[in-house]
Amino acid sequence: MKAFVSWSGGKESSLACYRAMQTENIAVNYLLNMIAEDCKHSRSHGISSIILQLQAEALEIPIVQRRTSWESYEQEFKKTVSDLRKEGVEIGIFGDIDLQEHRDWVERVCCDAGIKPILPLWKEQREKLLEELIGVGFKAIIVATQDRFLGKRWLGRPVDLELMKQLKALDGIDLCGENGEYHTFVYDGPIFKKPVEFEVGKKYLKEGHWLLEIISSAK
Question: Does pTM top 0.90 for this prediction?
Answer without folding.
Answer: yes
